[in-house]
Amino acid sequence: MPKRKKSPPLTKEQFLARVMSREEPDREKIIKDILEELHAFEMKYRMRSEIFFKFIVGTPLEDQPDFLDWGMCYREYLQIFQTQFSPEKIAADVLG
Amino acid sequence: MPSLSDKLKRWLIATRAWEIYVLLQKLPEPENDLLSNLDDLIEDAAITGNLRLYALWPSLHKKLSVQERYAFPKERLHIDYYSYVLSEIGDRVIIRADSAPHHERDYHRKLLTNFPHHLHDENKRVCSFSGELEDFINLAVPYVRQKRKDLIS
User: Fold this and answer.
1) Nearest by CB to A79, which of B11, B15, B48?
2) B interface mutation test: which of A68, A69, A81 has the most B CBs within 10 A?
3) Each residue's pLDDT tens digit, B90-125
4) How distant is the Cα of B30 from the closest Cα of chain A, in angstroms?
5) Do B7 and A63 touch (CB under 8 A)?
6) Cα(B114)–Cα(B97) distance, rounded to whole angstroms?
7) Which of B20, B23, B47 to mutate to test the interface with A (most CBs of A within 10 A)?
8) Using CB atoms, which residue from B6, B14, B91 is nearest to A19?
């Protein structure tokens, strides 16, 4: 088996500098990935994410790894759209 | 151009990701290249508010999932919610901990010492838990060092 390539060792400062020098993230790709993940959960459990979130999240039924992941994923989805369409963002887009 | 608050958020998440990376050094070196992937995960987290990372040991049939949801009150990072899961590849959960308020008492019917933080032990029993990733990793160490029993010849 070929040897796995390892990342070179980094210091915390080097790591932070590397992260901070990156371009702005590809929001579209992130949204696409989240939607795919939500779709996979919906297919697996034959339930829409909205229904899952309304009736299972926050109840004892949620307490299993898949459901915790699904809830987390749906919150990501909500967070993105909340940011995308927040009054501040809309105002910033309009005003440039 | 990202705003100052986006940059600050990214820096706070990156700092936490580094802390997690350092804590993971207590475990055998993951077989996936965690450090290279961290940049992408941090970018995702800066948008979604969730950091999700996985350390994998396919040769040991183990996987550690660390998921944290962040809030940023007063320009500081606060872990709003987390889920830490150590499982066998194939998804049999070994131990897991989270901060969802599903349980008030442990399996002895005693109040959890740090509600809502709790841990499900290898017998799926609810136990008190500090809420600290470091403590979870300390609990995970012996399991990760262990090969799956049915694979030991």
Assistant:
1) B48
2) A68
3) 778 999 999 988 888 999 999 999 999 999 999 989
4) 10
5) no
6) 12
7) B47
8) B14
Quickly tell me which residue has 């049999």 as its tokens: B92
Taking phi first (over 0 means left), then psi (-120 to 50 degrees means alpha), and beta for anything else, what does residue B124 get? left
Amino acid letter, B104: E
List, as one string, the DSSP characters of A48-82: -HHHHHHHTTTSGGG-SHHHHHHHHHHHHHHHHHH
Q: How much is the average pLDDT of B33-54? A: 90
CA A41 to chain centre: 14
Instruction: Return left, alpha or beta for B39; rule: phi > 0 is left, psi -120 to 50 is alpha, else beta.
Output: alpha
Q: Contact at 8 Å (CB) between A53 and B67?
A: no
The nearest CA of chain B is from the CA of A6 a distance in Å of 6
In whole angstroms, give the CA distance from residue B115 to residue B130.
Answer: 9
Nearest Cα to Cα of residue A83 among A39, A31, A23, A36: A31
Tell me, what's the ipTM? 0.81
- CB contact (8 A) between residue A20 and residue B7: yes
- The conformation of residue A22, written as its DSSP 8-state character, comes to S
- Biggest CA–CA distance in chain B, Å, is 57
Is the alpha carbon torsion for A50, A53, A55, A56 positive or negative?
A: positive
One-letter identity of residue A17: A
**Interface A-B: count of C-beta contacts within 8 A:** 85
Question: Taking the model in full, what pTM does it have?
Answer: 0.84
